[in-house]
Each structure stands twice: as C-alpha cells, then as structure tokens.
Amino acid sequence: MSDPTASNARRRRSELSVAEGDTTRGRRPMRRRVWFGLAIVLLTTLAACSTKQSPSIVDPKGTEAHTISGIWWLMCGLASGVYLVVGGFILVAAFRGRRTETGKPSRVRDSTFIVVGGLIVPAAILLVLGVQVVHASNTLRQPEKDPLHIEVVGKRWWWAVSYPDQKITTADEVHVPVGRPLEIGLDSDNVIHSFWIPQLGGKVDMIPGQHNVWRVTATKPGLYRGECAEYCGLEHARMNFVVVAQTAADFDAWLVRHQLPPSGPSDQLAATGQMIFMREPCAGCHTIRGTTADGTIGPDLTDIGSRLTLGANTVPNSEGYLSGWIVNSQTMKPGNLMPPIPMSSSDLQALVAYLRSLK
Amino acid sequence: MALTDVPSQQTHGKIDPEELEEIWADAPGVPGFFSTVDHKRIGMRYIYTAFFFFFTSGLMALVMRDQLAAPNNHVVGPEVYNQLMTMHGTTMIFLFNTPVLAGFGNYILPLQLGTRDMAFPRLNAFSYWIFVLSGLFFYASFLTGKAPDGGWFGYTPLTDKAFAPGINLDFWGLAIVFVGISTTVGAVNFIVTAFKMRAPGMTINRVPIFVWSILSMAFMVLFAVPAVTLAAGLLELDRLFGTAFFLPHLGGNVLLYQHLFWFWGHPEVYILFVPATGMISMIIPVMSRRPLAGYLWVATALIAIAFISFGVWVHHMFATGMPVQAMSFFSAVSLIIVLPSGVQFFSWIATMWKGRVRFTTPMMFAIGFLLIFLLGGITGATLATMPFDWQVTDSYYVVAHFHYVLNGAVVFPIFGAIYFWYPKMSGRKLNEKWGHISFWLMFVGFTVAFFGMHILGFLGMPRRISTYPSGLGWDDLNLISTVGAFIFAVGTGVTLVNWFYARWWGEPAGPNPWDGDSLEWATTSPPPEFNFASIPVVASRHPLWDQRPLPTANPNGDDATKSLGPEGAEHHQTPETTGLDARPEATLDLPHPTYLPFLLACGIGVFFVGLLIQAVLVGIIGVAAFVVALTWWAWRTEVDLA
After folding, report:
1. Quick check: A94 and B367 CB within 8 A?
2. How far is A51 from chain B (nearest CA, A)?
3. Which of A335, B188, B547, B594 has its CA 20 to 30 A from that of B540?
4. Are strands A212-216 and A222-228 parallel, antiparallel or unpaired?
5. Which helix (DSSP H) or strand (DSSP E) does residue B6 occupy?
C-alpha cells in the first residue's frame, strides 16, 4: 500500500547482483553453483524480512498466518537439510569416480542405499512433518465464541463487504478488530474468486452456489493487503482490497460512525453534487444509504469518502483519482463494468465534493 | 522351440539389404508423407511438431515476462495477457510435453524392444494426424482475433457462456476433447507394443526402464484422459447445447468440473514426468558405464506412481472449502507419492556413485535435472501439507514449483534425450561444445527465472495477474526472473541451431556412439525402415554389454518363428511374443503405407469444426468421412497387410 523504503530496495538489488556475478565468473562451476544456491537461500530469508511492506506470509499478523508461518519454518529447515544432503550426494556421486578406470567401488549395496535413502529416511521425515502439521493445523479454522460476522461477496472485480449484525455495508475494505475471532462468510454470484489476506492466513475460494466460511483472528493493528487469488477474468490483477485491523476501541468507534444514518450534504456544493448523483446514471448502479440511490451493480458508496482506495485497491482515493474514475475509469482499470460518465467540470467538481463528504 | 544363435552379419548375407529397403520404403514426396506408417517417421514428426509448439509457446512466455518485468507495465494489456497465459499453459501441456514424449516413445520403443514397428502402425499414424489437426484447430483461434482466455484449466463458470460468450473458448474446449483422442489411441498402442512385440528372450524383467516408464505413462493416460475429456466435453455441452452441468443457478455444480479436471490433471503431471525419468534412467547408466542400480525397485516405483497418482488430485482444491477430514486423506497420499520418486532418485545416485561418469551433454542435462527436480519435489511435498497450501496455492510459489517440475524435471530430460538419441535418429552427433553451452545457459537461466518466484509467492504475489503495483517488494525479483527467462530462451535456441547444423554437418555417429546397452544401439544410425533385418535374441538386461556379438534369431520353420530372420523383413512381418517371457508365438503382418489414418483424422477434424461453428451440415460431412474411412480401413486391412 505504501512504498517500501528505497534503501531496502537498493540493498536487495545490490545483494542479488553480487550473487549473480559470482556464478558467471567461477572457474569451478559445480562448487560455484552450490554457493549460488546457498546465497539464494539466504536471500530468501533476507528478502522476506527486509520488505516490510510486502503482503508477506512470513510476516504474520493473524492467527492462521502465525501457525502456517511456523509450519513453513519447520519445513524450510527440513527441506534445506534434505536439499543440501541429497544435492551433496549427487555432486559427490558424479565426481568421485572420475579418475578411475571403471568407477570406484563402495561397500554399501545398491538396494540398501536405495531403501534407506529413498524410502526409510523420507518416510521418517514425512512422518515428522505429518504429525507436526496435523497437530498445528487442528487449531485452525475452528468455531470460537462470540465471533464477529462479516460477509464478503466477490464481484467482477471488486468486493461487497457487509456486517450483517451491525447492518453496515461497504466495499473493497474490510475493517476488523484485533483479538476478536472473525467469521467471514464468502460467496460469489458470478465466477470463482479466492479471498486471500496473506498476512492473516490462507485462501478460501468464493464459489457460486456454495457458502464458505473462514475463521481467523487478527493479532496486530495495521493495514494489510487483500487479494483475489483465483483467476476471475479480465481484471483479476486489479481485484484487491484493504484490511484495516484496528484496536477494539477504534473498531467500535468505526462501527458506531457507520451505523448512524448518513447526514445530508453539509454545504451547497455537496448538495449540488448529490442532485447530480441522482440525476446521472450513478444511482442506477450504486447505493448510498439514506438516499434514493439503491443500485446494486456497483459498490455501495455510503462511506466512499472515508475509504483508502478506489476500484478495488487500484488507485488511492484522492480527489484527482476520484474525478478521473468518474469520467473514465476505463483508463485506470480497462474493462471494468463502469462506463465512462462524461460531464461538465463544474458538475464533476460538485459530484466529487459530495462523494468525498460521505464518510 | 530352438532359436539358432547366429551373429547378424551371417544372416544378413542371405537377402540383399537394398531389396529390403525397397520393400519397406514409403512412396517418395507428398504421397509418402501422407501415407507413411513408419514409427520412426511418425516419431520424428511428433518431435518436430511438438517443438514447433514449444518455441511458439515459449515466445508467448517471453512476452508475459516482458509485461511483468516492471510494475504497472504496458507491454500488453490484461486482455492479451490472459490470452497469452491460456495459450502458453495449454500449449505446453497438451501440444508440447505430452506429444513430445509420445514422439520419443514412438521412435525409441520399437527399437529398444527389437521389433520392426509399433503394434498398430496405422493407428500410430492416425494418432499423429489427430495431434497435429487438433493443434491447428486450437491455434486457428488466433484467426478470430481473440484466443481463448479462460486459463489453461478453464474453470467454470468463468468459461461458461454467460461470462465467456465468444467462440474463442469453444476452440479451447473442443481442442481438449480432440487432442485426447490422440493421447488415448497412442497409449493403447504403447501398451500392446510393450507387451507383445518384444524381441525373443526379452523377458519382462529385462525390459529397458524407458519402456517401463512409457508403459506406466500409457496406463495413466487410459484412466486419466477420459476425465478431462468429460470435463471439457460437458463444458462444451453447457456452452453449445444449453445443458447445465456446471451452472449453479440451474442446479449444476462448479466443483464437479474441478474434480474431473484434476482427476486427470494430477496424473497428467506424472504422465509427463514418468517418461522423463525413464529417459534419465537410460542416460545415467550409459554415461556412468554401469547398469542402473536397483532395476526392480525403479520398475516397481514407476508402477507405484501410476497407482498413487490417482489419489492426490484434491490437493489442487484445498482452498475450495471441502471438509478438512476429506482433504486430509489427499494430503497424506500426496506426501506418500514422494516415496517412489525418492526410490528413483537414490537409484540414480547409486548408479553414478559406483560408476565413472562421463560429462557428456546428455549427462549434464541429467545432473541438471537431478538438482532441479530435487527442489521441485521438495516444494511439491510442502504443497501437500494442507495449511501451508492454503497460503501458497495460486501464488507465485506454485508457479515456481510446477515450472521446476514441468520445465526443469521434464524439459531438461527431453533436451538430454535429444542429445542422447539424436545420433540414432540422424546418424550424426550434435556438437558437444555447443551442447554444454546450451545446457549452462538453460540451467542458469532456469534458476534465475524461476527460483525467485518462490520468494514472490511468499511476498504475496498471486498467480495469473497481468500487472502489479510497485511498492510491494515484487519489482526486483520480477525483473530478475525476466532476465532469466531470456537467458533460458537463448539456451534452447542454441540447441535448435545445433540440431539443424548437425543434421547436415554433424560428426557421423556410427551405430552406438555412447556405448549404450539397449537394442536401439544394435542397428545402424539412422535405422533402416525395417529396424532389424534379423531380430536379435536377448539373454540379458543389457544385451549390447553382455552379449558380444549380439546373436540374432533364425526361423524354426513354424509359424511362430518364421518372421524372426530376414525372410520376415522380406515379407513385411514381425514376430509377436508372449507377454511375460517373450517367447515367439505368432507372426504379425505389418501394414503398408495408407492414406486412411489421415482421412479418418480429417473426418474427425471436420466434425469438430462443425461443432465449433454450429453447422450441422459440416458436422454430418465430418461424421460421414469418418464412417467411410473407418469402414474402408476395416475392409482394406487385408490389402494393407498383404
């Protein structure tokens, strides 16, 4: 959502280019390749830690992501060990007989080597992994007491978000309290989407004709990136959202503010804007609670003024982007279902003022 | 039964080889091109056609990598990107990987078995024509101005009429059904050939591992391909005839499609991977100058994979919200399938361990394969653990994983196999120096292109996105990946040039340039149309190492053995042997060149075009041509075999 610090990016770039240079210069390519592999493994860790702004699964901010990140580091340990040992075997096996006439004998019988290396050891590793994973994952996605119900419906290509108990509807932004179990109902009335907030946990698909539920608890306040992870057609790439994880108090305040019926336009310009909204095609597709606008094709705009992004996290929600979006959103998100709405600049100014007043 | 063991030179003397050439030769020029049933010509065609698709689809990948090289890039828009992504995936799976392995199988299998052709040569030609026509059919979608864009997996409802009204998706759905005919027919042919056409004495425990791998692949094809045919077929029924198998608002079920698709889709990974391991199991022992360690273990592992591969498909669907208990079973099976691959892996290591490795180009590709597949296999096991899969499925981690498996662990063996068997196919060796250059470019390019994608997945980059914003830590890794992709592409290009250069100016190879152990090295390079004037008699798993000179069989005067010697070649015959211990039991007449396979395939092609454009008349013409060709085929069998 915000830019990573430039120094982080630069550091990463220089590290990677050093690693690359090494491989091409090496006199003994095999050895070099091992070092190259090691360097890359190290970089994995570095890259994962150094880019705090990435929606990284190893930077967990939710219960499920915590557990899975633990599983990953266990597997990463096992996998690195296996790779180094077996990779070592491969290289040694390839080179050890090279100065001999017919190959170097070994006391170990072929079948012993194959059974131990190919069956017994991997079976033991998989058993450890299996037990650990079952143990860890038993706690995931279990119903808990007093959850907060949220319903998210995947649209093309945005997200309709509602809090059924509080009767709040919004879009492309999910506000959640930290520490309270969430029960997120996931549906679609069009194609398949997949709901993914990497820093909170794994994916759950949104499948037409099937109601899925994802249970998770956010553990730390912050802004997290949410994404559609199932290919859903033209604008799959621009179907993202923002998760706003707040302290219980902040979240309650947000709830209260959104449960109040929206006050009317505060000034003359906004009042004109409201009139234009109702006159132009806008109201046919969008809902603004407390007005006659009740379309359901596009996102609910009742709190558009307080949202962080437009077009499912395509552009930031600023005056300029909002104007541009209204006039021709196709330039920012080609193929999205909102047609260009040509209007005079004074009308546009009023309309934007109205929309930005909707908090 | 007594088979006379006589060194081949002596038997050759009885009948003039030139005379044999004449009996077996195809008509020159165009008629021969369309009527040949020679497994070697068909095999080469498979390889050429598949590589045409490989390079086409590779260029598409380069355009995609160009687009993703920088954030908010505008090389192509989402519309074109989605088409490229769909065409790239579909082409690589259906029109490159599967058929290129069928091509090698076609060329090598009868030679390794010591027979004069496949069991059903006309069916073999038919299988090729179906493949090439379905490929043309699929690529004809470009002519409409819009290629299929539903992803290579074509999930409904995105591919239903409501969300994809265009004809472009019908090209995809029908092509999947169309090409399935070719794969299935080919599988039947491989199975019968492997069981009934082996040289006398080649008992089931003396069969080269490559044959075992093709056999395992063919059985998987037989049971898996109907599922994808059904998935795409039902989808087309929904699209063209208004049924509602996958339409939820009419009572259909979208997950049904996914089950059908992956019931084929996961065995398909092994359908591609298993013959590739078979190639590795041929290359490593020859280049280590010793027999493969643990032959029985490896053969058993190949069969085990074929069985277990049918119990893992749900790991593609862990995020669909199925009950966790049900999914746990598939998670466990997906972990267990690591074991047979582990067996193969340690067999290869053991083979090298006690041998003396020659670092030839095929061996370089084999070692590269080992190092790449090791990681691809490990990441595969991580994907089998359900909670972790929830995080990384449909992210770039998966893109990295399956390119490690399908590019690294399949394409590397294929390139190794090219360098290994090219001398047999052309009579000339590929240039070793350029082979090494090609390998290193491919290996380094591959690693640079795909390793970073694991990290991108960890950083939350989803699959199949046509662009991404900056500031998410994805920019550098994507740029690096693009650079790697171009290096890889140059590496493949070097081999392409090497191929055509060596075709005319390569160093002559002789019959057995690598000192190989299996029967394909017993005949000349390139082999004559009839492969073997006299059929060799096998008494070992490694006939060319253990039986010098290699004995050939003499007829015994009875019907079972009369085709073993050059008289068999003269009469256009080949022996049929028993399934387990390969005793001669009958004589098979091999068919002469015929246009019928081509005609039959064309009839089916016309039928599919009729479906596509919804023209009943065209469809009827297609069916009519099909029926006529099939009837004629049955009718003409005696003429073809005479």
Report:
1. yes
2. 6
3. B188
4. unpaired
5. strand B6-7
Q: pLDDT tens across B349-372, in order? A: 999 999 999 999 999 999 999 999
Report the C-alpha gap between B514 and B505 in whole angstroms.
19
ipTM: 0.92
Q: Residue A315 belongs to what H/E stretch?
A: strand A315-316
Interchain contact, A118 vs B440, CB within 8 Å: no
Q: Given a cut of 80, is residue B73 above it in pLDDT? A: yes
Quote the crossing angle between the two packed helices A63-96 and A29-50, to the nearest 10°: 170
Alpha carbon separation from B628 to A322, A333, B267, B610 (Å, rounded): 66, 53, 35, 18
Give the Cα-Cα-Cα angle B285, B290, B296 (nearest 5 degrees). Answer: 70
Smallest Cα distance from B429 to chain A, Å:
23
What digits encode the pLDDT tens for the residues B260-283? 999 999 999 999 999 999 999 999
Is residue A9 scored above 90 in pLDDT? no
Residue with tokens 């219960």: A63
Cα Rg for chain A, rounded, in angstroms? 27
Q: How far apart are CA A119 and CA B1, in angstroms?
A: 43
Instruction: Assess contact for B319 and A203: CB atoms under 8 A.
Output: yes
Contact map slice: B 568-597 vs A, CB within 8 A = none
Rounded CA-CA distance A173/B43 in Å is 56
Give the amino acid at B501.
Answer: Y
Q: How far is B521 from chain A (nearest CA, A)?
A: 21
Q: Which residues are CB-contacts of A99 (< 8 A; sequence separation ≥ 6)?
A: none
CA–CA gap between residue A205 and residue B349 (Å, rounded): 42
Q: How far apart are CA B182 and CA B129, in angstroms?
A: 8
The distance from CA B598 to its chain's CA centroid, rounded to whole angstroms, is: 21
- Cβ of A101 within 8 Å of Cβ of B350? The answer is no
- Predicted confidence (pLDDT) per residue in A86-111, tens digit: 999 999 999 998 888 777 888 889 99
B window 342-401, beta carbon within 8 A of A:
342-347, 349-350, 352-357, 359, 367, 370-371, 374-375, 378-379, 381-382, 385-395
| Residue B439: its H or E element | helix B432-458
H-only helix segments in chain A:
6-25, 29-50, 63-96, 110-114, 121-137, 248-259, 268-279, 282-285, 319-328, 345-357
Instruction: Tell me the C-alpha distance between B350 and B357, whole Å.
Output: 12
User: What are the helix and strand counts (H, E) for chain B?
Assistant: 23, 6
